[in-house]
Every structure is written in structure tokens, then in C-alpha cells.
Structures
1.
Amino acid sequence: MSFTTIFFDLDETLYPTSSGLWPAIRERMNLYMQERLGFTKEQIETVREKYFREYGTTLRGLQANHAVNMDDYLAFVHGIALEDYLQPDPGLRAMLEALAVQKIIFTNADAAHARRVVRAMGLDGCFNAILDVHVLEPYCKPMRQAFEIALEFAGESEARKCVLIDDLPRTTRAAREFGFFTVLMRSTLRQGFDKLNLPAQGNAYSVGNDSPSPDANATLARLIDLPQLLDGW
């Protein structure tokens, strides 16, 4: 394997879409906007879509327009019993331990949430570091500055030596343009264009088709199959 660093997205990449955890987090986001900021239920989806597209994440939009405290927001939206959604995954742990490269969680969430997810999945000790929203501030994926920070954070001098795995096409597309080798998790394609469950843009993706997405170098249905995919490149 010619790659020396792999960046793993967290939500709906490290764990499968089928867990149901992300919809639960999304509901907590909606509840925060309703209870703390006074948005009506009818306004929330429109505002979240707008902020997601314009600022990269709902949080960045709320910070810019409503002076939301990042730590308060993150503590609220991640206030979920993870054991109701995630279980230890010995097979995934064995795969990660066998990868002889630097492994970094690269997330728009915070490190506290990432550590809880890792612990719930029985993956403690499998990652070298966590690159989170605090390190990226004021940027976030898919901004180019986020990938520049990631490259420096990993101690890498060449983007081509890095793999980025994510479930959002816009992130893998931007990372590929930056120079990373990108892997798009296919499971999210069954749910729509992004984590807001917006409609897919055209017919670019075909679930069940092994050909790569135009937004990534490769697509992957199960994270445990990553070594075979990378060996093929």
C-alpha cells in the first residue's frame, strides 16, 4: 500500500447508516433549534439546508447568524445513549489494527463525540488522533482550508499519500480536487444527497453498481472491506 495516512469520517462512515444514530442526532439538532433558538418546526429544515450548503455545517451557520455557543450546541445534539445504536465490532477492530498506516478520525463533530463512538464500538486504541471541529475552527469539511489543516495535522507533505473516507459526495469531491485519494461510502447513497436527506442531484449514483462515483476515486459499501479496495489501487 503506497498510502501513509487514512482519514476516517465519523458519523455514518465509521458506523453504518443502518444503526439509526445519525437520524437521532438530526432530531436533537432540530430540537436545539426549536427550544433554544425559537425556530418553528416548519422553519427548521429550510434553515438547516441553507446553512449546510452555505457554511458547510448547520453549526457553522448557527454560529455565524445566531451567536450559538459551539460547546453548548455539541453537548446538546450528542446527548444520546450511544449503546442504544452502536455495539462493539470485533471485525472492524481487527481490520483497523492490521492497517499499517497512520489512522486519523477527521470529523466536523467534536472529539468528545468521536471518543464516545469509538468506545461504544470497541475501537479504543485503533486511531492515532482525532481531527475535530475545534482544530478546524473556523473551517470545516468540505472547505479547502480543512484539508490543508488535515495535511499539516497528519505531518504529511503530499496529499497523494493520504486517503479520505467520507459518506458525503461533496466532501469526497472537494478532497479529491485537493489531491487526496477519496473513498465514498455507498450506504449513504440510499438516503439521498446528504445528511439532510435532500434529493439526489440527477442520476450520478447507482446503488449496487461497482463503478466509482464521479465524486470519488472509489466507492465502498462496507468499511471492513477497505484493505481489499486499497490493495486494488
2.
Amino acid sequence: MATVVVKNGNVDGAIRTLKQRNAKDGSSKRVREIQEGYLKPGVKRRKAKQEAIKNSRKRNRNRYE
């Protein structure tokens, strides 16, 4: 779990920073996967493949802009 220090009473900025850190380390994604429950191996494999394709396209899009 990420921790954030609130500076000068700026709670909104601290919340935004916390959300960014959680998104970067993937903790919210892991929680969502745990809540979904068991996935069959084939479903898990297809989901991982789709995620890899999405990330590859995202990296290529950012590389050529």
C-alpha cells in the first residue's frame, strides 16, 4: 500500500497522488482480480494475451508520436 504525505492541507492533491501511485504499482488491479474470483486457465490466458496486445499498441502509439 502506498503512503502519501499531505502538504499544506492539500488533501485533493494527496488523493490524486495516491491514486496515481496505486495505478502504477497495480494494487487496485490485483484487488479487482481477487474480487472476480477463480478464472479458468484458458480464460486467464486469453485475458493476459489481450492485455499484452493492448499494452504493445499503447507503447507503439507513444513511441511514434
